[in-house]
């Protein structure tokens, strides 16, 4: 009996968006209007590439970025929740599927000593170039019209589950914890026995309730959370059953 926990990162594990938080490193802690207005829907990774070039051009170095990123607060109750999951790894496999990047997530999890809680992190690959600029790439290519060009979380989840099955691992239940519009696609892939946990007041919750109003609700159960202690209460019930 094993459960799979799937977490988004921005506004779910941390209480901010890591990509917008990095702007604190920019001169005057803001981006020029031309750069800010250059974002095109569905092309966030390319936009962040330009932001990282701007930061590099302005002499922002890796250590300054790292110091800034590790000040991001975790969501209320999240540190306790991750500690609880870490103590029960025999029952929970735990992955992150995020539109952030490997460098940011790595820094933040390692600084808080939560790296070992997660079995795998699926996010946009990032590295520092020889000239010290942070570069980020699309996670994969996909054919899903609903998702941003660089990442379809449903595809990631499906491929992970297929790989686990090949290893002889299947899950009693998948618990999907997220907040954003790009979490809807994987939530719609979940089965009746699974559960989606959208963050209260965020896009995912609104989209799920819109679907219910349109009489095409998601198949899985839905439990809204506002603090990670809500998630922990549910997990404690789950392992008691």
Write the CATH homologous superfamily of the domain at 3-15 and 74-124 and 146-239.
HAD superfamily/HAD-like
Mean pLDDT: 95
Could you tell me the CATH topology label of the domain at 3-15 and 74-124 and 146-239.
Rossmann fold
Order of helices and strands: EHHHHHEHEEEHEHEHEH
Low-confidence stretches: none
Distance between the termini: 11 Å
Radius of gyration, Cα only, in angstroms?
A: 18 Å
Helix content: 25-40%
How are the strands of the largest sheet arranged? Answer: 3-2-1-6-7-8
Explain what you see.
- Keywords: Hydrolase, Magnesium, Metal-binding.
- Belongs to the HAD-like hydrolase superfamily. PHOSPHO family.
- The active site is at 8 (nucleophile), 10 (proton donor).
- It holds the Pfam family Put_Phosphatase.
- With 241 residues, the protein is of the alpha/beta class.
- The chain has a domain at 3-15 and 74-124 and 146-239: HAD superfamily/HAD-like (Rossmann fold), CATH 3.40.50.1000.
- The chain has helices at residues 18-21, 33-36, 44-57, 62-69, 78-87, 102-111, 153-166, 184-189, 203-213, 228-240, and strands spanning 3-7, 92-101, 120-124, 126-128, 134-136, 173-178, 195-198, 221-222.
- Helix 5 runs parallel beside helix 10.
- The longest helix has 14 residues, at 44-57.
- The mean pLDDT is 95.
